[in-house]
Amino acid sequence: MSYADTNVPPVSIVTPQFLHREAAVQLEKAVKHHRQAALLHEAGDARQAETHGSIAYNHTAQALEVSGRALNVLLW
Question: Which residues, at least 6 apart from 2, have a Cβ–Cβ distance to it below 8 Å?
């Protein structure tokens, strides 16, 4: 059997559904960190609030990237 003869298991195929779900997970993480940042700002801890805000930003950016990939998935 050659490499070209191997079958790709269905679980390894990236689908739009998978990518949309991953984007949702990243957005949920971002919401969690935004809420924590707000609480920390209210408590007067701007340094920790900035850290959580940065984490939230990164999760949001990752969600946008994954969401964009979901829109460009071609199913054969």
Answer: none
> Which residues are within 8 A (CB) of 45 and not within 5 positions of it... i.e. 6 or more apart?
none
| pLDDT range class, residue 13, cuts 50, 70, 90 | confident
Q: Which two tokens stand for residue 27?
A: 């957005």
Given the structure tokens 């993480």, which residue do they identify? Answer: 29
Burial (Cβ within 10 Å: 0-12, 13-18, ≥19) of residue 23: buried
Burial class (CB in 10 A: 0-12, 13-18, 19+), 37: buried
What pLDDT digit, counting tens, does each position of 48-76 carry? 999 999 999 999 999 999 999 998 876 65
- Distance, CA of 60 to CA of 14 (rounded, Å): 20
pTM of the model: 0.77
